[in-house]
Design brief:
By secondary structure, the protein is α/β, with parallel strands linked by helices. The protein contains 18 helices and 14 strands. GO terms for molecular function: CoA-transferase activity. It comes from Nocardiopsis mwathae.
Length: 429
């Protein structure tokens, strides 16, 4: 991991000075705002004072009483734990949104309007605001307000039908992929809208939905379906239009070979010492290989089973053939680090201590890993860790802050505990 550059010598991150009011929870919205925080934005995460974000109780596993799920998408933020049913608490959040450059929310339809935190209400006070609404099925979807969870959207979008073994049952992707894609789409749209807002003073209302993100992610499969009028078949770890491009068993473990064109196929045949496969007219071009997929895959598989995976990976890489070993998650992380990919960053959590986290999929040359807009990157916050700090910034009088705390409308955590993680550890919900 990188050694942080002194703050005085470090250029500002791209979103330094951008203020984000994060009214979202669970995955898509928090993932988007974490990306904005990684780019230097100041993110305030608004949470319920007793329960917090739903993911705080999604465990085990735990680290210092905090769930691994919550920790994965909330670094770089400050937490304001406030009851939106309390009028003074709600007024403070309205003020937060009025001062923000970006507001992002994923409340159920109708709830955000009743709170007076919808786009119309926020933009009336803050015309340049970039306001992002995240839903499962989009604002025009019928029936209105249909709840969207990743597994439901994977089913409804065709993603599940496209995943799984030939002849087997549809299968969901191993992570909540539609949430992750929606978070990425939201972040991209927010960046574009911020650019316009900064130059014109004109805000934007962005809508991002899990189902649209899922459908757009199917890329060639959706186009294939539109062109043919038929559903693409499930092919397991193979590719619908490229052969060989799939997982193969070796003597000890599976590897993936991606011979994406005719030249790579010939290199593969040479590395396998199978000149007969290169010369066979049935396999001369990719369309012919697709037509004779079963026979060719059987021949390649029989050859690969004769030697262990590490030998094949070394041999095929030397031949210029794209190849990789099928790894478990932890093995993949450690292998990437050992190879110099620098996928990890470190944060110092107030109760879990020093902690490794996965970096975002982008790198900023100007700023080392593990640093934010003004110094070390903030760890995922405890529930309400910054409540008093944020309320003071919003000019809430000290006596009113004390009253909010006294009646439980605002929660302020300390490093001794979160008010939710310990409960989640002992009594999983």
């Amino acid at each position: 991991m990188d050694t942080p550059t002194p703050a005085s010598d470090r250029p500002a991150r791209p979103l330094a000075g951008v203020r984000v009011a994060d009214l979202s929870r669970v995955l898509a919205g928090p993932y988007a705002t974490m990306l904005l925080a990684d780019l230097g934005a100041e993110v305030v995460k608004v949470e319920h004072p007793e329960l917090g974000d739903d993911t705080r109780s999604w465990g085990p596993p735990w680290a210092g009483g905090e769930s691994a799920y919550y920790l994965s998408v909330n670094r770089g933020k400050r937490s304001l734990a406030v009851d939106l049913k309390d009028e003074e608490g709600l007024t403070a959040v309205r003020e937060l949104c009025a001062r923000a450059d970006v507001v992002i929310q994923n409340f159920r339809p109708g709830v955000i309007e009743r709170l007076g935190l919808d786009h119309a209400a926020v933009s009336a006070r803050n015309p340049a605001v970039v306001y992002c609404s995240i839903t499962g099925f989009g604002p025009e979807h019928a029936p209105e307000g249909r709840p969207g969870f990743d597994i439901i959207v994977q089913a409804e979008s065709g993603l599940m039908a496209a995943t799984g073994e030939p002849g087997g049952a549809p299968c969901k992707v191993g992570v909540a992929m539609t949430d992750v894609l929606t978070g990425l789409n939201a972040a991209v749209a927010i960046l574009g809208a911020l650019l316009r807002a900064r130059t014109t003073g004109v805000g934007e209302h962005i809508t991002a939905s899990l189902v649209n993100s899922a459908l757009s992610s199917l890329v060639n499969l959706t186009q294939q379906a539109l062109v043919t009028g038929e559903d693409p078949p499930r092919l397991g770890n193979a590719h619908s239009t490229i052969v060989p491009y799939q997982a193969f068993p070796t003597a000890d473990a599976d590897i993936v070979i991606a011979a994406g064109n005719d030249a790579l196929y010939r290199r593969l045949c040479a590395a396998l010492d199978r000149a007969d496969l290169a010369e066979d007219p049935r396999y001369a071009t990719n369309p012919q290989r697709v037509a004779h997929r079963a026979e060719l895959v059987a021949e390649i598989g029989a050859t690969l089973r004769a030697r262990p995976s590490e030998e094949w990976v070394k041999l095929l890489l030397a031949a210029g053939v794209p190849v990789g070993k099928v790894r478990g998650v932890l093995d993949a992380i450690r292998s990437a680090e050992a190879a110099g990919d620098d996928v990890l960053l470190g944060v110092d959590h107030p109760v879990a201590g020093p902690m490794e986290q996965i970096r975002a999929g982008f790198r900023l040359e100007s700023t080392p890993a593990g640093t934010g807009a003004g110094g070390p990157l903030l760890p995922p916050p405890l529930l309400g860790q910054h409540s008093v700090e944020v309320l003071r910034e919003l000019a809430v009088p000290e006596d009113r802050i004390g009253a909010l705390l006294e009646r439980g409308a605002v929660h302020q955590s300390t490093a001794s505990g979160t008010g939710i993680g310990t409960i989640g550890k002992d009594v999983p919900r």
